[in-house]
Prior knowledge:
Layout: H1 7-12, E1 20-23, E2 27-31, E3 39-45, H2 60-77, E4 84-87, H3 91-94, E5 103-107
Antiparallel strand pairs: 1-2, 2-3, 3-5, 4-5
Bound molecules: adenosine monophosphate (AMP).
Amino acid sequence: MMSEETIFSKIIRHEIPSDIVFQDETVTAFRDISPQAPTHILIIPNKLIPTLNQVTPEDEAVLGHMVTVAAKIAKQEGIAESGYRLIMNCNKDAGQDVFHIHMHLLGGKNLGKLVH
Ligand code: AMP
């Protein structure tokens, strides 16, 4: 099983530069280096979980917290009313590139319909 640290662990520990918008004991949120929308922020657990397939019932609190934090950041970014999208990619078919689970918060423009 892949459970090696990624660049995101370095971001959590402030070992490399990043634009952190929120951090507490459980999660870290920072601006995506290659934004796909005017607001593009990644929300990650401080604990390393490589993919959604490794999530266990003990992780339910942290995953719930990621959603709460995402909604709070959306408000701060001024996109809560206009709308936004939360995305988590798992493995190859979803194009997961970094093996430390992360929630994409995208908004600030019309994102189009993803699922019809
Ligand atoms: P995914 O394709 O879901 O694995 O998303 C990985 C995301 O991480 C991409 O949107 C990248 O642009 C982003 N990313 C990779 N390295 C960094 C970094 N050092 N700082 C901020 N975002 C990054």
